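FAQ: What does a multi-protein file look like?

Like this. Sequence, then tokens, then the next protein.
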Amino acid sequence: MADDFRTTEVGDRYAQALFDLALETGRLDAVRADVVSLKTAWIESADLRRLATSPVISADDQVKGLTAVAAKARFEPNTVNFLGLLAQNGRARDLAAVIAGFERLYAKHAGVVAAEVISAQPLDDKQLTAIKTALNKSLGKAPELTTRVDPAILGGLKVKVGSKLFDASLKTKLDQMKFALKRA
């Protein structure tokens, strides 16, 4: 699911338009909060993903659906109108790329380093604080953490900072060991 959030040329163009609009209207933080909520909804709701990506749902129905979701979530009017425009232009399927592009633009503008921590089990506050402290020391900036649970990694952590991935997962270590044993 997190792999859905890759930037694309189209996603970057639309993200830049939303970012510029939010900046010009002085509503950047409100729109950013909407984008964060939208990302969470995208991850958690198969119906939202289906609404945005299905080729059998007409652009008009996508406009109605996305704006209804945004209105129900009490999104900023700029965000609601943007989602309607995205669907009207037949680009609702690019929503995940728009979210990724907007997050990148916001992080650059605010000087924030975004980091995603993937663990096999939910992390407690003490563990998150330790990770944040280590990243702060390593990066020289306070990171903004998002967490995700992926039982498939078996144990350990994966930490994504920008395009870099620090993989200390048990699954990767076992795969490396298996590969080494096959070569021996």
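And here is the next protein:
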Amino acid sequence: MSRFLKDNGLTIVLMLLFVVSIIGQFLTGWHVQNQQLQLHGEQPIGIVAFLKDPLFLATVFENWESEFLQMSAYVVLTAFLFQRGSAESADPDEGAREGDRRPLKTPADAPAPLHRGALARWLYSRSLGIVLVILFLASFVMHWVFSAKEAAAEAASHGQQTIPTFEYLTSAQLWFESFQNWQSEFLSTAVIVVLSIFLRQKGSPESKPVAAPHGQTGV
């Protein structure tokens, strides 16, 4: 067990933080929603019912969308763009990494897709970026759908005309919700790329060694 915890500690801690955070979002969101309902003279929503409330689900997928956009953009862009001196960039003066070059003979212990032909190799060699883009698109669609349902419920409660889900795709509200998260994700990524040129974090694989010169690129 101790070996398992040591080998998987980073994932375990991050997932525990995720669980605590989403439970916190759910509970505080439930209280906020009930406060708003009471202000409008409506019946409060039960805690179980709030699990499928469009307001809660829209905010969850809104945040997931921006995170997966950040990670997919970062993974794909760092494959061909560089920042000299950054620990987050490949060295622009070096060629393809040795592990990325296609060997004359595929090692026996290489991942299984590399033994299954050119198409499988091509897909696997880009699979991280592809899956992250798919997760971004899926999260965006879920954000769009539940945000549209929340907007329709809000409009109906005020006796206004509701907007169909498909038409809501052009709504300023949807894109306001998305852009306010996207800009922060791109800014934070650019900041870590630049700060890793000049600053260090001892022991972190995301940082260059403490004594490394500023011009050293990559870790």
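Q: Is there any per-entry metadata?
A: Some entries carry free-text notes. For the entry above: Helices lie at 2-39, 54-77, 118-125, 127-157, 172-198.
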